[in-house]
From TrEMBL:
SUPFAM superfamilies: Actin-like ATPase domain, Winged helix' DNA-binding domain
Protein name: ROK family transcriptional regulator
Family (UniProt): Belongs to the ROK (NagC/XylR) family.
Length: 364
């Protein structure tokens, strides 16, 4: 994070304090100071600002002999934000309060992928969740979409501030704040869906890169001159481990509805069907090889399997891929890494974008 002036540092501290409460545990000012490496005086100032703004509340902690220490927790309700996941076949909008409790959800099908049409789908979904909850006005909207051209279109049509970010960053943030990557510093989050990507936490920080495109692991080359990829190249990781590749391995007819086909395969895997297990094993080979390369380069302590393909296949996917990573990764790097299924698999893009919208426009 590049901090340009004292205002940036102050905002960064406010973000760090708020994020420390997303796990739900109450904390004292001293605990916050020790956790974040800040002085008690600095924490006192930040907590005072956040309490005055209505984001935190004080409660009496357990009595341990003397006066009970005052504890702090998130205050629910209050300011509302919307997180939006723009996928290829649908748009999902979710409404959250300032403690990131989900209050409403709406999913609408994507009938056309032109930018203007996508904006209409987003507005329809946002309007639908707005109608479900009237407790407080919406203060900001976060949209997970890698298409920067949509920003101006959305800002012209929305009556509140809009934040756009890459869905992969939102998924990684959701796992860091609420899921398997909480309290972990060096993590790779594997997002497996129609497309694939790799979210990276390095020393607790989200790796963005110079143009916010860090994590395009799906378009690194696995086989020179190999299978064609949607990006126009050949041999990309996505061509071998995206949902379309999995369906082709299964030999389950034309791609059609990828999610339904993968769900059928996952059901067969859980039943112990030999053909389905063989398909999973064949899918695990290129996936494990590609992840071994990432392990050697990034040296993570945790590998989190996310995305809707991971959600469908579940633990059998992790069990199938882990030995392949071990086969190809350097021993020291592999031994440092734990492989787990993501805990926040129910639309992490919306949650991550809601957090980003809240932090960008309500913690200034």
């Amino acid at each position: 994070m590049r901090l340009k002036h004292s205002g940036d540092l102050r905002r960064a501290h406010r973000v760090e304090v708020m994020r420390s409460f997303y796990g739900g545990e109450p904390r004292t000012r001293l605990e916050l100071a020790n956790q974040l490496g800040l002085s008690v005086a600095t924490i006192g100032t930040i907590v005072g600002e956040l309490t005055k703004a209505g984001f935190l509340k004080e409660t009496a902690g357990p009595r341990t002999g003397g006066r009970p220490a005052t504890q702090l927790t998130l205050r629910g309700g209050g300011s509302l934000v919307v997180g939006v996941d723009v996928a290829e076949t649908h748009v999902t909008a979710e409404l959250f309060d300032q403690a990131m409790a989900r209050l409403a959800r709406k999913r609408v099908p994507v009938e056309e992928n032109a930018p203007e049409a996508v904006v209409e789908h987003v507005l329809t979904a946002v309007a639908a969740v707005r109608q479900q909850v009237y407790e407080a006005p919406i203060r900001a909207i976060g949209v997970g979409v890698p298409e920067p051209r949509l920003r101006a279109l959305l800002e012209r049509r929305c009556d509140v501030p809009v934040v756009l970010d890459h869905p992969l960053k939102a998924i990684t943030l959701a796992e860091q704040m609420f899921g398997a990557a909480r309290d972990q510093d060096d993590v790779i989050v594997v997002s497996l869906g129609t497309g694939v990507g790799l979210g990276v936490l390095a020393d607790g920080r989200l790796l963005r890169g110079a143009t916010n495109s860090a994590g395009e692991w799906g378009h690194t080359v696995l086989h020179d001159g190999g299978e064609p990829c949607r990006c126009g190249g050949r041999g990309c990781v996505e061509a071998y481990v995206g949902a379309g590749a999995l369906v082709r391995l299964a030999g389950d007819g034309p791609p059609g509805d990828l999610e339904a086909t993968v769900a059928r395969l996952a059901g067969a895997v859980r039943r112990g069907d030999s053909a389905a297990l063989e398909t999973l094993a064949r899918y695990a080979r290129p996936l494990g090889l590609a992840l071994a390369n990432a392990v050697n380069v990034l040296n993570p302590g945790l590998i989190v399997f996310g995305g809707w393909v991971s959600a469908a296949l579940g633990e059998p996917l992790v069990s199938a891929v882990t030995p392949v990573i071990k086969e190809y990764a350097l021993a020291t790097a592999f031994e440092a890494a734990t492989t787990v299924l993501g805990r926040h698999l129910d639309n992490p893009v919306s949650l991550g974008m809601a957090v980003l919208a809240f932090e960008t426009h309500l913690l200034d």
